[in-house]
Amino acid sequence: MTKEITKNKSGRPTKRSLINAKISKSMTKLDDEMIIELKKLFELDARPRDICYHCNITEQTLYNWKKKNPKLFEALERFRAKPVLTARQEIVKGIQNDKYFAMKYLEKKLPNEFGNIIDVNAKLDFSFNIKVIDKDGRYNINEKTKDSV
Fold first, then answer.
1. CA-CA distance, 66 to 102, in Å (whole number)?
2. Which residues pair with 131 in a beta bridge?
3. pLDDT by residue (tens digit) across 120-133?
């Protein structure tokens, strides 16, 4: 919906109508074409900064649209799951064709059952000498101390 340019008596456009026309041209509307572009970008799981760059809008415009159209943006947010689902499908395809890859998947998915977990319990005993220097600068050497950690 563009505003018509009003003309003065001589048939020339008024300054105000030219300014208004310029402003309305620069304002980006959330129309069907823009929604299609947003959908494509959300399907790619693009960041807000990337979305704004691609659509030639500011981040504030994007957040204003989100505030005015919460249901639309909830629907768009659901498209962000598409890359994850595609990746999962590819993993399942890879499991069917590659035993090594299938084992790697199981190691990550069920580490207690298929992981390379080694339970190590150890008691360490070691001896050490303690050298203590008193106020006069003399060494006091204690007996060897045996300690458990």
1. 41
2. 141
3. 777 777 776 666 67
